[in-house]
Amino acid sequence: MTAQATGKTADVLIIGGGIIGTAMARHLSRYDLKVVLVEKEPDVACGVTKGNNGMVHAGISGVVSNVIKSKTPGSGPQYGRLLRDRLCNDSLAVYEEMCRELDVRYRRIGRLVMARNEEEVEMLGILKEVCEEAGIRGLVRVDQDGVRRLEPNVTQEAIAGLYDENEAVIFPPELTVALAENAQANGVTLLTNTEVTGIARGPDGTVNLSTSRGPMSSRFVVNVAGLSVDKVASLAGEVDFHLTFAKGQILILDKKVSNLVNHTLCFVPAPGRVQFLSPTADGNLMAAGTYEKTYDASDLATTAEGLALVIGKARELVPALGPQDVIAGFAGLRASNTRNLEDYIIEPHPALPEMINVVICPPGLTACFGIPHMVAGLLKDQGLRLEERPDFDPKRQAILRFSEVSMDERAAMITRDPAYGRIVCRCEMVTEAEVVEAIRRGATTVDGVKRRTRLGMGRCQGGFDTPRVLSILARELGVSEKEICKSGPGSPVVPLRAKELLPCQG
Amino acid sequence: MPRLADIKLDLAVIGAGPAGLAAAIRAREAGLDRVAVLERAERPGGILLQCIHTGFGLQYFGEDLTGPQYSHRFVEKARDLGVHFILDSMILELSSEKRLVAAGREGLVTLTPKSVVLAMGCRERTRAWASIPGSRPAGIFTAGTAQRLMNVEGYLPGRRAVILGSGDIGMIMARRLTLEGCQVEVVAEVLPYPSGSPRNEVQCLQDFGIPLLLGHTAVEVHGQERVEGVTIAQVDGARRPIPGTERRIDCDTLLLSVGLVPENELSTMAGIELDPLTSGPVVDDRMQTSLPGVFACGNVVHVHDLVDYVTWAGETAGAGAASYVQGGEQEDAGRIRVKAGENIRYVVPQSIISGQDVSLQFRVAAPDDNVDIVIGDGLLRQRHKRVRHSEMLTYKLPAASIQDVKGEIQVSCVKRRKANG
User: Fold this and answer.
1) d(CA B411, CA A225)
2) Residue A376: its H or E element
3) What is the CATH number of domain A243-259+272-277+287-337?
4) What does the pLDDT look like over A106-153, one tens digit per residue?
5) Cβ of A423 and B220 within 8 Å?
6) Separation between Cα atoms, residue A425 and residue B40, nearest integer Å
7) What distance in Å separates the CA atoms of residue A142 and residue A328, rounded to the nearest whole number?
8) Do B155 and A418 touch (CB under 8 A)?
9) In chain A, where are the structural domains located?
10) Contact assignment for B131 to A304 by CB distance below 8 Å
11) Is residue A6 over pLDDT 70?
């Protein structure tokens, strides 16, 4: 992971280690190409991927925004017209299989859309029709009893529902890490802490890039810089779009209330109604969200109003939930572009066609296996030869989770490696062996360990594990605890030794 | 050496903090042969090991000891008595048949002791509980985690701190940070009165000139990578921030001392009944839980303010476990329910069955002046000039006074009538 940039020219340099960037890298690793992935943060999945809610819009929710616009089927924009819809569909066709290859949890949880009055019941019918027109199968209308059978704890106000068996959820950083690991195993060079500051065509026709790690060159570039995609694009020349952002606040609830909800729950779609309640891939409940316009790509602050709104809306769905069940709150950003509000832009850069700009909007996670195919096609059009490597290995194995195996397997694991017998994070039952393995696979920060192992994601939120994980990180990386950061550089957890601030240091 | 799994234990104590140590010692003294204490840390002593300040043992020993000194006495005594320590081991499972599975470096150990003492202590409430909005940078710690980082690991959490919550750990950390050369800008407390003890308010804050802002809370955390500031605001009677009173304080560290919660994941796993008022197991006056042969003591039952009381509770639980093992299950005849009445947050134990002298421990729900603590129907009535929610009250009821009580004893804190002065 910390390999130095080589003097050799890459075939493709990918800018951005989010879910799309790592999926791009993994896709290109099938071919006989020298691929470099650069990421400005110390780890993959640090940007928009980290704040994503993890919903794979395999059913109703992928069609929903079109439905709102077209009150009746047949009028308004049709599902499938947009590039976004096409790439989501391509991606969904292989999503579950890809997750299996990469040993990533894909939880098909299903969604229940509920109606509280006759008008909403009518909307359920429209929704079903439109979704079926869009090719979605497995939709079932349920009456009040049906709603209660599926979800015994939902509000009494729900009088009918539409059940969609397709909806799924993943943990986005888990998939991103898996894609990066598999890409690296197939020869991709991942350079973290590498920020691109300049892009220009060199005299020999290759693209020269200035980076915080020094100059690099590549025949082709893929700009998947997520929240910075417009800024990176403008390094190579003017573009006719920039990004706007909408913040969404999300609450994670204690696992002790997980049994209250079985599927993703929401009321019938309506303009501005973005709230839902859902199990997560890890078995917590997640309450989302808000939709707050912001111009600042770094604005991930939660607000009192936002958090109150989210829990309030969750209570409208399941009244037994309350603020006391919240164990963490965070915010993520949705990006959209000013040229094409509802759709992606995926095209060669107007001033530098060797660079493909990939500008996406929600749902983006859903399309992560579709976008790379299209981009590879565009690169081919630009003259890149795509020759399959015979030795490409699509398989990747997840870090074995002590908490998820039987007692017999646990006993065997400890015999194999006594570090499995040391529980570092008690709430999520993460062992020292798993932390060491996460570091071996590239985690250099507390958050890096966290997103690979679930350490610190339980109800005590790191209170117990923080001192332990700091000392393991320091030991494994061969540095002082003082140098261990929570996330980016400048986020040391314990910046000073004891006594360091006292005047009489001998 | 016999394998651990083959040892037929009389008693397994979960947790080697002050509660567990006292329980193990008393059980050995009462004649139980095979007593083991399971502890997830590498050394026994529990949270006391990071409490390097004094103030421990004034009641129990009549001496002013540090946390490590206090725990050391019990660890030594337990070792002398042949208590078996299983360290660096975490219990993964506790069943309703008292079967324990523990993970340690040597492997998984399954134990089926005749009795169990739960002494897992408590954990700190987090940022989510205090619902503090804002960014999520490095530099936000619960006070106890910061205490461990400083006193055990030897690192400072930062240079300039704001402390939210005036719990005892928060105030002790305010002093500790100051002694280390850090700047403590303010201790903010959402309640109109301090949460910790008056002694700590004087010795940890006032003596060091650290401002305590009552009726204030944190409304936003600033900073992308590391904390850069915290905005605090005054709150109204319903603890809602009052618009216009916000004030940003630059700092690189935010410590949270916003309360402790008994840690009862294992109790829940075993199906043991919990009291919603304490978040700990419901216990009788021998500290037996709803599961016969399983006892509980210390902060896992309710959060204590003095370790001395934790030790006494541990001794009661250890004696209870010994008598359970030696005498088998006891009749549940004549059980008296103990209830929290007016302005009482909770009472422990929740029932009395032993027929011996019993100590009731409780806290008031809100501080008040000129009140009477009233126990039962004429059992006890005592005047208090002032009661604080931060102070655990203990009253001993002699066996004779309760032998005829049927049904229920209620504990209340009632305002004194002014009429007769």
Assistant:
1) 64
2) helix A371-381
3) 3.30.9.10
4) 999 999 999 999 999 999 999 999 889 888 899 999 999 999 999 999
5) no
6) 11
7) 33
8) no
9) 7-102+169-241+338-398, 243-259+272-277+287-337, 402-483
10) yes
11) no
Question: What does residue A362 show for φ and ψ, rounded to 5 degrees?
Answer: -65, 145
Nearest by Cα to B171 from B140, B210, B219, B132: B210
CATH class for the domain made up of A402-483: mainly alpha
Question: Which CATH number do you get for residue B368?
Answer: 2.60.40
- Within this chain, do residues B162 and B237 fall inside the same structural domain, yes or no? yes
What residues of A act catalytically? Answer: 57
Nearest alpha-carbon partner for A68 in A160, A137, A134, A130: A130
- Whether B316 and B286 have beta carbons less than 8 Å apart is answered as yes
- Give the pLDDT of residue A78: 58
Query: What is the β-pairing status of strands A168-169 and A55-56?
Result: antiparallel
Question: Quick one: B42 and B118 in the same domain?
Answer: yes
Min Cα separation B369/chain A (Å):
31
Which pLDDT belongs to residue A3?
A: 39
Smallest Cβ distance to A423: which of B90, B136, B149?
B90
Using the predicted structure, report yes or no on whether residue A74 has a pLDDT greater than 60.
no
Which tokens hold the place of B411? 């504990």
Q: How many CB atoms lie under 10 A from the CB of residue A247?
A: 22
Can you give the pLDDT at residue B5? Answer: 59
d(CA B389, CA B384): 13
Assigned token pair, B241 = 């921030």
Give the DSSP letter string of A282-311. Answer: TS-EEEE---EEES-TT---B-HHHHHHHH
Tens of pLDDT, residues B134-171: 999 999 999 999 999 999 999 999 999 999 999 999 99
Range of the domain at B206: 126-258
- What are the counts of helices (DSSP H) followed by strands (DSSP E) for chain A? 13, 23
Return the closest-CA partner of residue B8 out of B104, B83, B114. Answer: B114
Give the ipTM of the model, two decimals please.
0.94
**CATH 3.40.50.2300 holds for A7-102+169-241+338-398:** no
A474: which residues sit within 8 A by CB, 6+ positions away? A480, A481, A483, A484
Question: pTM of this prediction?
Answer: 0.94
Q: Count how many pairs of residues, chain A against chain B, have C-beta atoms within 8 Å.
A: 156
Q: Give pLDDT tens digits for B4-56.
A: 555 689 999 999 999 999 999 999 999 999 999 999 999 999 999 999 999 99
Best B140, B226, B246, B300 residue to mutate vs chain A (most A CBs within 10 Å) = B226
pLDDT in tens, A447-500: 999 999 999 998 888 888 999 999 999 999 999 999 999 998 899 999 999 999
